[in-house]
Amino acid sequence: MSMQVLVVGAAGQLGAEIVRACSGAGHAVTAVTRRELDVTKHADVLALVAAARPDAIVNCTAYNDVDGAEDQHAHALDVNAFAVRSLARAAHDAGATLVHYSTDFVFDGDGSEPYTEDDRPAPQSVYASSKLLGEWFAADAPSHYVLRVESLFGGQAARSSIDRIIDAILAGREARVFVDRVVSPTYVEDCAGATLELLRARPPVGLYHCVNSGHTTWYDLAREIARQAGIEATLVPVPVASVTLKARRPRFCALSNDKLRRAGVTMPTWQDAIRRYLDRRLGTAGSRG
Ligand SMILES: NC(=O)c1ccc[n+]([C@@H]2O[C@H](COP(=O)([O-])OP(=O)(O)OC[C@H]3O[C@@H](n4cnc5c(N)ncnc54)[C@H](OP(=O)(O)O)[C@@H]3O)[C@@H](O)[C@H]2O)c1
User: Does the beta carbon of 191 sit less than 6 angstroms from any atom of ligand 1?
Assistant: First the structure.
């Protein structure tokens, strides 16, 4: 059934993909960028949503500068938390479903098994705390899906950390990669597909982990990219402890997709996602292993 979907943050990495996927699925999309709507302006949010009368609001806005947030508390909270409260209120008033995205950074990363939705968050940075608050505010919308994603890649601008690794490998440059940070990467195409499937199938509302299946260190991720690209890459393993970063990064951040799978959405493996993305970037579908 065709829906009226309002995508906010439509120019971002995920936002642009959500717009593309919604249009491709035949939904009527209202795509707004920061230019049309600053989500930190409460009254503007309420007015725009009331005028658009959406069935679903997909919030792709975020303040994602993890280190910058340590100096920009108010700004990070404004975008990642209080704006979500406005969107939840607007969704409530419009009778719309709110889809909101959060992050693996809500965990401290001291675990050793993939985190589930029942595991206790323990944010270690201003960014992480602001995103956790955003999750809580999103849940104020009577109908909501909060999807935790991680290490997003595959946006049109190709500016993610994974894109930087791919760029270095393809250019024959050395790539320095964390050897002891574990992640479950998320291909924007798969995240958009899962979002649409949730809006179609309507499993119970709530929090879902929405990453590609499996997990890897950044080093093994880079090795897999090089293997799939058929390139002998120069990879330099970097221990997290050897790098000084303003905000603490969680070390182990594998997320379990089991709840999403039980809801009927199976996420492809991260290796499969990398293969499809390399095919798209290199235009070599079907020619690599
Ligand atoms: N990227 C990752 O690896 C990652 C990891 C975990 C979770 N996530 C979450 O996934 C979601 C999508 O991330 P993404 O990578 O697609 O982010 P992105 O590319 O940084 O896009 C965020 C968008 O939000 C816009 N924005 C920021 N402040 C705004 C405001 N006040 N009003 C309106 N728009 C505003 C930005 O506009 P400008 O460009 O003009 O600033 C940008 O277009 C976010 O919730 C993010 O926290 C991402």
Answer: no
